[in-house]
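Q&A FORM
Asked by: J.P.
Topic: structure of Branched-chain amino acid ABC transporter permease

PROVIDED:
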Amino acid sequence: MTRAVLAAALLAVVTAVLADDFLLRFLAEILLLGIAVMSLDLLIGFGGLVSLGHAALFGGAAYAAAIAARAWGGDVLLMLGAGIATGTLLAAAMGVVILRSGQLFLLILTLLTGQMVWEVAFHWRDVTGGADGLRGLPALSFGPWALPGAQPLFLLAVLLAILAWLVARSYVAAPIGRALVGTREQPIRMSALGYSLFAVRFRALLLAGAIAGAAGALYPFVNLYVGPQSVHWTQSAAMVIMLVIGGIGSLWGGFLGAAVYLGIQTYLSAWTDRWQLCVGLVFVLTVLLLPNGIAGGMRRWRGGAE
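REPLIED BY: S.T.
REPLY: Here is the structure written out as tokens.
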């Protein structure tokens, strides 16, 4: 694991030196959305909690960071603090509403609670900019040091992706993570053993919200803009598609899915308006040929090695 992290860090430094600004911002977007998809994987892949409101946590944190940046400047620690706090609070509010319901009702309630956040973002024009969103964000900084341009943003995204993956991996391996899997596989038995299904799932949702919020805090600085689409349910659906393509139950699969989805969106959309059809074809082929996603296919190709 240590060697993999060091290799990723070295590759990131080389990429930051050689790549142009467009590619660096594109890679940063992949990493930040990949972090959000990875946090969604904690709920779906390990908890069996399918959510169509996850974009509300990610996009809500993006709005909070953008509003804080316009008011107090783009200090990285301030942005991350605002994003994590917002993602966690929104997850807590969502958890109180949804986690006592069954699977179908849970899915519908995540959709409804997520759309409540969209309603606020779309109609509270004085704060969120309404349909126009928020623009004119200051450059990122770290204390007295300015971090302008794409290189610092990309390196921050790399660092955040590594830290988020380590946190998620530690959580999954810990007893609380095993308990979350137990609530998915044998909820009645877990209740009989004395576990509170609500408490186990609520903690998972809080962690997912915090991780998604951290990624959302940096997301507005990719394009120096955040709009209501970032909290819409269609963005949540796109995250689910990314997760299925990358591989449910594989934490790093979310990054693969985000790369495939955004690659199609960014490059094929320059050639055709039907890029979403291409995403649909990739999704169907993944379900038929790689039911465990790209990550699962890669593990199988490597003979099951982790």
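FOLLOW-UP: The chain has a mean pLDDT of 91.
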